[in-house]
Amino acid sequence: MLPAPASADRAVHVIDARWLSGAVIAVAIAATANAGGGYLPTAWGWAIAGPAAVALAALVLQQEARVTRHAAAFVLLFAGFVAWTAASLLWTDSVPRTMGEVERDLVYLATIAALVVLPRSRGAIVAGTLVAICGVCVAALATRLFPDRYGLDVDTAFRLSRPLGYWNGLGVLTAVGALLALGVVVDARRRGARSAAAAALVILLATLFATLSRGAWLALGAGLCIALALHPDRRRLFIAGGVALVPAAVGVALFASANELTSAPSSLAAATAAGHRLAAALATLALAAAAAPWAADAIAPRLPRLPRKLLVGTVAAAALLALTAAAAFAGPAYDAFRTPQRFGEHGVGARLFSLSGQNRSDYWRVALDEYEANAPLGSGAGTYDVYWTRERSIGVGAHDAHSLYVETLAELGPVGLAILVAALAVPLAAVAAVRRRPFAAGLAGAYGAFLVHAGLDWDWELVTVTLAAFACAAALTDTGNGTVALGAAARRIAAAAAAALVLAALAVQQASTAAAASEAALRAGWHDEAVAQAARAVRWAPWTARAWRVRSDAERALGDVDAARRSSRRAVQLDPSEWTGWYQLARLTSGAEQSEARAHVRALNPLAPGLDTDARLG
Questions:
Q1: Which domain holds residue 199?
Q2: Which range has the worst mean pLDDT, 85-94, 269-278, 433-442?
Q3: Closest CA to 55 of 118, 140, 124, 7
Q4: Cβ-count burial of 278 within 10 angstroms (0-12 exposed, 13-18 middle, 19+ buried)?
Q5: How large is the average pLDDT for residues 268-286?
Q6: How confident is the model at residue 15 (pLDDT cuts 50, 70, 90)?
Q7: Are 489 and 480 in contact (CB under 8 A)?
């Protein structure tokens, strides 16, 4: 533990430890959420540096550093996955894309390491994660309930996505939060904490509904099943959780009936009035939910205990009914899944009750073809969009395969997928040691919900979502027994790695900030500044091709066509798989060089419109 004055007793140490571990993950989640979910590289540098610096300080200042075997395995396996991702630079189809994946993965590695080496506790991590998620949900819900201040979500077909920028990502984040809140309602010793968590459920489920995310509800259901299967006192889970969920369910029902907020409103004034009414109703329900723990404690002694055979029989009958229904509707459901849904469709019915996979079958098909073309190593981390743009059969852009596992197989091969699955499985393997301890079932449910949803969407690219899931994973690996002390050599190696992460993070931040500044300057018409910032980005990240493309556009605007041509050639040299670089070069050249550039554009993006028009390529 961290050193303290000699007069301080052991309780102070424990409180300090809980504050630190909870604060680290709370800040990480809240800060990345405020930066658009941490999707863009401009958020990665400081998101690596902060946790890495905390880990370094903990390793240096602690008198003794102890970790559990599960925690050590989790960190080492994930570090192995990052190393394999970096190794794919040797065979990747796009070095800049692979470097981007390495940088994002370092955010996760640094945060996991910080949570593991700190003297953490499950309660502290649960509290920090839940408070941060609730803060994100309050901010998100405010944008829907007060459209007079924040505007209408027309661009997302009225699916709540702010501040993360993606409705499904926000949905699964709230599902993780709801499962953690349910765990607190059931397992916390302090009634005040249980009341706060019950009130939070109203906000969390209302936010989840506003996203109109089918996958998030599926993930929530999967997490509930996991929590139910693992909780040592299912009767308490049913009673305390059921009572707490009643006000939250009423809130969802009220939201579902507010048509002005779930589909195209008749006017901004009508949406504002409906939002204000719903805000008042949700606040009232949250206050009522705060009394749920008292009600549950009063009700529980009066309820009869149902025979175990009856419960088992009921569950078995429900499972049989579900399997029968699935078998009966498998064919039509599969056909509906493969049918695209128009983006502009909105409303509760069109979204929540649609079986359309939103082109996922096409995404997965291209990913599997990508693997077959590059077996056994894969095409390199981050390269899926190259293959999608080249092999797609529909005119829809996609950067990700909408499945962590399928995309990992395509990009990193069976070895990369095996390492990732092994790392993600370690926290689940630790559940057996902690299942009877407070919050364990809720944590396992929340982590399981993420793992299910990650197989259906691109959660991995939303740093906020993945950090919340990894916080649950780190808490699960804190078994409380089987701990090992890090030796002096191991601590020095770990401290050196943490210090290297801090330095790498500074370079990442400098490069991404300069690249973003260059693009912003180009949009603003400040072409000299765009050239200068692009040059700065290249100094910090010599592999970047995007900065060279921005520089080329700025130089062309300044009238220096020769310089623009040189910059464009350099961009193509660094990333020959990027069709926009060849397109840019085709606009700047003539003769054989232009013909070659046009051929590359057609090969890399056959569905790009207007490739043969002289107005665009001349």
A1: 10-303+346-488
A2: 433-442
A3: 118
A4: buried
A5: 96
A6: very low
A7: no
Q: Categorise residue 478: left if φ over 0, alpha if ψ from -120 to 50, beta otherwise.
A: beta
* End residue of a domain, out of 488, 517, 550: 488
CA 371, 377, 383, 387 torsion-angle sign: negative
Beta bridge partner(s), residue 68:
483
Q: Give me the residue label for tokens 């009130």.
A: 199
Structure tokens at 111: 């945060």
Contact criterion met (CB below 8 Å) for 279 and 232: no
Total number of domains constituting the chain: 2
Encoded tokens for 574: 């660094």
Asked if residue 518 is part of any domain, the answer here is no
> Length of the chain in residues, anyone?
618
- Asked if 86 and 156 sit in the same domain, the reply is yes
**164 plus 266 within the same structural domain:** yes
Bridge partners (DSSP) of residue 480 are: none
d(CA 477, CA 72): 9
Query: Cα(617)–Cα(89) distance, rounded to whole angstroms?
Result: 32
Kindly state whether residues 197 and 252 are assigned to the same domain. yes
3-state secondary structure 569-616: HHHHHHCCCCHHHHHHHHHHCCHHHHHHHHHHHHHHCCCCCCCCCHHH
User: Both 295 and 440 in a single domain?
Assistant: yes
Examine residue 214 and state whether it is found in any structural domain, yes or no.
yes
Neighbour tally for 593: CB within 10 Å: 14
Tokens representing 550 are: 């921005």
pLDDT score of 11:
40
Three-state DSSP class for residue 560: coil
The amino acid at 7? S
Contact, 298 vs 240, CB < 8 A?
no
Q: How far apart are CA 270 and CA 283, in angstroms?
A: 20
pLDDT tens, position by position, 90-111: 999 999 999 999 999 999 999 9
Window from 111-125, 162-176, 374-388 with minimum mean pLDDT: 111-125
Q: Collect all residues with Cβ–Cβ distance below 8 Å to 250 and sequence separation of at least 6.
A: 285
Q: Tokens at residue 58, please?
A: 């903990």
532-573 confidence digits (pLDDT tens): 999 999 999 999 999 999 999 999 999 999 999 999 999 999
Among 488, 510, 537, residue at a domain's last position? 488
Asked if residue 568 lies in contact with residue 588, where contact means CB atoms within 8 angstroms, the answer is yes
In a domain, 493, yes or no: no
Q: Are residues 191 and 278 in the same domain?
A: yes
C-alpha pair distances (Å), 614 with each of 53, 555, 567, 582: 54, 21, 22, 15
How far, in Å, CA of 119 to CA of 229, rounded? 29
Taken in order 457, 454, 161, 163, the sign of the CA dihedral is: negative
Same domain assignment for residues 193 and 111? yes
Which segments of 73-131 are extended strands (E)? none
Report the distance separating Cα 317 and Cα 322, nearest Å: 9
Q: Which residues pair with 484 in a beta bridge?
A: 67
CATH of the domain at 562: 1.25.40.10
| C-alpha span between 227 and 253 (Å, rounded) | 24
Same domain, 139 and 243: yes
If pLDDT is split at 50, 70 and 90, which confidence band does 2 have?
A: very low
How would residue 154 be classed by pLDDT, with cut points 50, 70 and 90? confident
DSSP letter string, 159-172: ---TTTT-HHHHHH
Structure-block tokens of residue 350? 């069109």
Answer for the pair 185, 127: CB distance below 8 angstroms, yes or no: no
72 plus 182 within the same structural domain? yes
Report yes or no on 43 lying in a domain: yes
